[in-house]
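Supplementary Methods S3. Input chains for the assembly prediction are listed below.
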Amino acid sequence: MSMDTKTLVDWVLGSDAGFWWRFAGVAAAWALPITLWVSLVGLISIWLERKISAHIQCRLGPMEVGPHGALQTIADGVKLLAKEDLIPDGADRMLFALAPILAFAGTFVSFAVIPFGPDLIITDLDTGLYFLAAIGSLEAIGVIAAGWASNNKWALFGSVRAATQVVCYEIPMGLAFVTVAAVAGTLSMTEIVEQQNGMLWNWYLFRNPFMPLAFISYYIASLAECKRAPFDLPEAESELVSGFHTEYSGMRFAIFFLAEYAAMYVVSALAVVLFLGGWYTGIAPVDKALAASPLWGNVVGALVIITKSFALIFVQMWLRWTLPRVRLDQMMHLCLKVMVPIGMFVLVFAALWQALLPYAGALNGREALYPTLGSVTGLVVFLVLVIGGWMWVRGVIRATTSYKTANYRT
Amino acid sequence: MLEVSLQHYLLVAALLFAAGVGVIISRRNAIAVLCGVELILNAAALNFVAFNRYAAPAGRLDGQVFTIFIIILAAAEAAIALAILLNLFQQTNTVDVDEADTMKE
Amino acid sequence: MDIDFGTIMFFALAIVAVVPAFMVVLARDIVRVAFWLLASLCGVAGLYILLGADFLGLTQVLVYIGGILVLILFGIMMTSKDPLHEKATASGKRSPVTGLVTGALVFAVLAAVIVGVGFEENKGVSGGEPTTTKLGEVLLTDYVLPFELVSVLLLFVLCGAAYMARRRREDAHA
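Predicted structure tokens for the full assembly:
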């Protein structure tokens, strides 16, 4: 297993190969796989979204192209490619063309540091987590450029909303990152996963009683970063046509659309890496057997990490077709007055837990440890949060008039 | 064979500084002036990092620490400057730096 | 090939940093100014990374592009009088010639000093070692006082900016 982390400059300079060879090598070694994977993720998750939304609404969804409409996205892609590429009158042409690229670039580059298996990572930076946080901020710029360049009222409103939301929710997201970094003692993605080796309760989600809170706060922030419901007010169809990409058509629209779905995968895979054990199945003997052979370790590892990520993507879609949209002031209130204080609390207490409990220093070792106290309390807090949250939501739903007056056929 | 040296970095920083000065002198929009200030700060920070890389004793990172402080202070400065500009805009309905001379008259 | 990859990267990044910086002087539209500044900041971040300061390069992207530039763009949108019709209005400039001439003079002086002193013996572009851990240690040992002072300063700035930029009560009545 290659555990050597790299600095950014080594990544850029690499070996002593000539310029064009290196250029071609970089293109073949990571641009091509990322491109293929981004397209594949886009295809699958767009199809999934349509099927899931359809089934939630008691419909069938696309059924015509391919089995259960599986090729519908390809048909749509061809349609978008063939469409006229409109640039509105009075638009700022340079920025209009630049915006989708800016919005897509951040998501695209993020794939370079997200692992698929023990060795399946394009570059294992020693600053991987920080790199992701930094690159993620490019998206806000792309969105502002799109809204401004479109010369359209709705696009501008959508882009201002989107930028506000993305910039705001970077704070709780960053606090969750810092919490994980404080617990892990490293920023390297593979190192973080390595430390979650072992049984299920060794995952960072259960590492100490504060991590479940960090995970939930990260997950809510990631919904807002992806502009997914209930935080989809930047592209609220009923108010803003479709937000910052109102004026975009054809290929440029397809790029925005692809970036949105790729970003969903990125935040989900990141949640898996940071909190849900990465490529480990959570059953220690199985992991040990798999790690013995590099081939199976990587293949099964990739399958595990992709399955977990798509499970989280499914939850995102499920939420989107279930929850109503929040208002702008509710969005700001939730971020600045609820999630930032919770994030601070979690960071301080997770760091204290890490510093004060005796096993903390041993975590940097490669051996799987079972910090029992942290895991037990973590599990209890997680269960309390999940069950409590479920009861609360159920109570709220049952208290609404529509539930009481609805006439169900059972 | 051409090799990159400290001098090259210093010249790039000098060019950035000159561009920043040019922006501050030729612009009237206060936000553009702010952009010029950011360029100048970047030039200074680049100098710090370059000197740290080429001239500092091995293992010392003082130049990089200074650059971190420069970036932090630039963020603080931008936030305060924009707050002031918003106030100015509410008072005078313009962000032209030449118009904001009521203290003079 | 007798020019190595690091040299090519340096010149590419230097062009990305410097040319947009001059476009900041020359551009007509104030929004364009902000986006040329974006390109220049990206170039400088790349130069940091080339100098082995990877943490700083990422901090530059995170703070400047994710923070300051977004602030500047918000500032532009909030202070332009009619964003939807007067978009291409002049960003308020005198002739850029004054600026360019002054810039050229400043550069001439600086370049004369730099070339005169001669920093040429320090050469080479090579890989660096990870700086993140070391920076953290230095910040919490040698530089702990400035570090804490800066955090207090940031708190003041946060409160001050929020206070100054709030909507005035009087405006609601007027």
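The mean pLDDT of chain B is 83. Chains B and A do not touch (no CB pair under 8 Å).
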